[in-house]
Known about the structure:
The chain contains 5 helices and 10 strands; from the N terminus they run βββαβββββαβαβαα. By secondary structure, the protein is an alpha+beta fold. It has a 5-stranded mixed sheet, with helices on both faces. It has a 3-stranded antiparallel sheet with strand order 1-2-3, covered by helices on one side. Strands 5-6 form a two-stranded antiparallel ribbon. Helix 3 links the parallel strand 9 and strand 10. The longest helix is centred in the last third of the chain and has 25 residues. The termini are far apart.
Amino acid sequence: MPKSTNRPHGRRTVYNGITFDSNFEATVAQLLDELNISWEYHPIRIPWVPSVQYYTPDFKINLTDGSSFLLETKGCFDLASRAKMKQLKIQYPNMDIRMMFMLDQPLTKGSPTLYTDWARRHKYKCVTKDDLYELQSSRPRRKRTKQTVRHANSNSQRRTRQSKRANRRTSSPGESTATGE
């Protein structure tokens, strides 16, 4: 499980020997590992202007078909982050940067515009946990817990008991039933 330390804007979190800028980033990395999706953390630095600054995407996702895309994870999508992402789209319109939000919430208190609404309006694709499952060629099967196994067995036993009762009702008093009772 990720190990965390406090910091003012997010919580630096260590997962699998890598220090992530936030717990959400570490959680996404853990999910990518569970799904066997190849990824790199902070793979490149991209210059952008008005003054020369650098944007470092959170992840580079490498797909099995040889293609890849950049994934930006956001917990808080403040005005500065939105301005940076808007400038990046203007300066690099063909770069495949996708956004994944921890929560799809309003941009500001009382705003009708959600994070994903803003991203789509500025031509960013949005990624959800379900989309990550779809990236994987064969989605892992859900493990059956003892409870679900017990539940499945109890249904089978219930059907057997009902079948025996039905056989008893349909047979005459002197006949033997198909179940041997």
